[in-house]
């Protein structure tokens, strides 16, 4: 299935090279994904998708893929009286649950900092902010929490630790592969493709990607989020029953 989808994608790319291009800026870039739906099953171990397209004219290509936003709390631990405890915490909102990036060249060579910041090109420019005003914390302290959040996401393979490579063929066709880990969150993802020339954005296009749980895993996920209290009680009962059965088994041994 994966090979056939990639083969179809290659055919589409080749066909794009023969399409007449109108002198409209918005049509100087065409991009798509090999699939627009990722199903998370019980044995899901991750997925790899192909993003491909074509450009008209010169320029660099940058691709970012972001997952649905979430609120994440970052806590700082200090040793107090010989015990490690949480001393400070900051909740950040509008944090992408997933962020991947790829480019034809190093980002600093593709666009100046103000362009990268305005388009959120690069993990350091993602526009998540504290959920409330934290009095008593200096801006540099908030920046430390922000950096800690980025490192946490990278350690979970949910944020790109480095910029991926975009391959360009015949100076017009391009492709890149994006890996989604097994712990990716269900929801609507967005693939954004930018064509940048001389440091300025020439064209951009977004493509949606739906990620959802299916089968038994989906039912458990919906129950856990829709009936959290009952799910918690059920988890406690199952854990207690498992412990009791293990104790009985050991006594018989």
Strand and helix layout:
Layout lengths: L1 H15 L12 E5 L3 E4 L6 E9 L4 E7 L2 E12 L2 E14 L2 E5 L3 H4 L2 H6 L10 E2 L8 H17 L8 E2 L1 E3 L3 E8 L6 E11 L2 E14 L2 H11 L1 H25 L1
Parallel strand pairs: 2-13, 7-9
Antiparallel strand pairs: 1-3, 3-11, 4-7, 4-12, 5-6, 6-8, 10-11, 12-13
Folded structure, characterized:
The structure is a single chain. The chain is α+β, with helices and mostly antiparallel strands and 253 residues long. The protein folds into 2 domains: 2-214, Macroglobulin (MG2) domain (Immunoglobulin-like, Sandwich), CATH 2.60.40.1930; 215-253. It has 6 helices and 13 strands. It has helices spanning 2-16, 107-110, 113-118, 139-155, 216-226, 228-252; strands at residues 29-33, 37-40, 47-55, 60-66, 69-80, 83-96, 99-103, 129-130, 164-165, 167-169, 173-180, 187-197, 200-213. The chain has a 6-stranded mixed beta sheet. Strands 1-3-11-10 form a 4-stranded antiparallel beta sheet, with helices on one face. β12 and β13 form a beta hairpin. α5 packs across α6 (228-252). The longest helix is centred in the C-terminal third of the chain and has 25 residues, at 228-252.
